[in-house]
Amino acid sequence: HWIVENNVDINESYPQIVDASQYLKDNEVVAFPTETVYGLGANATSDVAVDKIFQAKGRPSDNPLIVHISASEQLNHLVEEIPETAQKLIEHFWPGPLTIIFKKKDGVFSNKVTAGLDTVAIRIPDHPIALALIAAANLPIAAPSANRSGRPSPTTATHVIEDLQGRIVGVVDGGETGVGVESTVVDCTGDHPLILRPGGVTREQLEEIVGTIEVDPSLKEGKGAPKSPGMKYTHYAPNAPLYLVKANREKFQSLIKNKQKEGLKVGVLTTEENKGAFSEADVIIPCGKREDLLTVAHALYDTLRAFNSSDVDIIFSETFPEEGVGLAIMNRLQKAAGYRVIEE
Ligand code: TXA
Ligand code: MG
To answer: Where in the numbering of this chain does the YrdC-like domain appear (predicted)?
Structure first.
């Protein structure tokens, strides 16, 4: 049942979308592209369907899922209230890489979607295939990233197949996703909105619309209990241990040489601008351009996966300014590195 059609032309993809929407109605799980990463979709109202997501991913059941809808009118049937801040964010950022936490209506979703919480995470993805698929299924679609739990999120159908072939009925192939990191998760149920997970919509963009907005402080250290349950798990990690290097070029180069003297093969996650500086490393993978962090976000997960096809024993990564989408990039890199940072 592998649906492989590498085309974002909605007319060309139409037969695959019809097939995939029928699977969703039949309570099967299907992977599909969004503008951020590939999602693993299932009928959010069915325990049987949602359970298949957790089975396929090997995901801990205390980690709730994002519900995807295709039009904001559907919200009224799903949530208790739409606070004013949420309404503003919806007007500016939906469809798009922003997930909003609401108080859920009882009796709508499978309890497995919300992991027993009284809130629900909802977004409208900005991708023609995702929107057509959700509309055709005519259901709210629960969809985490379509990777095995702990692995980097998938930004191509090939990544999905690597992780989930044999565990799900199929994937609608829409080529590479655009943003490359997941949606920003914002909690709008309290007195002030709070960023629970940095992502595709930047803190600066949110602040233009709703004023100052804090980031869940527990994300900084990777310690304490994050308000978004999923943020407590190690994630995105390549097979070899990853270290983030906040140091000048000389220090970075001597780190590489010292590990090589110990007999280790060293990989470096770098950028187009800096790749020439690390020629002594065994494997050098540039991840976008520093001068345009959107290109780094776009390439990040593919780069982390690419190190697994090499035989490196250790990976050193450049770090990035925590501004704009850099905040999401550094959050994902810190998680992938288990918060190991080498400073000057
Ligand atoms: O870009 C995305 O958001 C992708 C695409 C497929 O839409 N989806 C995605 O889903 O990243 P997932 O399951 O990998 O991440 C969902 C995040 C987790 O950190 C989870 O803990 C959090 O959202 N979350 C879900 N429901 C929540 C709730 N009610 N309260 C707080 N956090 C919640
Ligand atoms: Mg995920």
So the answer is: 14-201
